[in-house]
Design a protein that fits this description.
The protein is mainly α and 68 residues long. 54% of the residues lie in helices and 0% in strands. Helix 1 packs across helix 2.
Length: 68
């Protein structure tokens, strides 16, 4: 497996956005990421108070997005 590494230089700039070309992500990586995400969400929902915690996080994310 290859790991991408970023070494900052003086010419590097900090940015607020990251752009990912999803067309370059191999199918097996996309499928593994989707499966892991679903496992995480199902695990959260199985916990007591999980639904409420997830809903609160979603509401906070959406509120932050609407102020931009």
């Amino acid at each position: 497996m290859q790991v991408a590494r970023f070494t900052p230089t003086e010419e590097s700039e900090l940015v607020n956005e990251v752009h990912i070309n999803t067309a370059e992500i191999p199918d097996f990586v996309r499928d593994n990421l989707a499966a892991a995400t679903l496992d995480l969400i199902h695990g959260i929902l199985r916990q007591p108070g999980g639904r409420e915690a997830l809903d609160a996080k979603t509401a906070a994310r959406r509120a932050g997005r609407s102020t931009k």
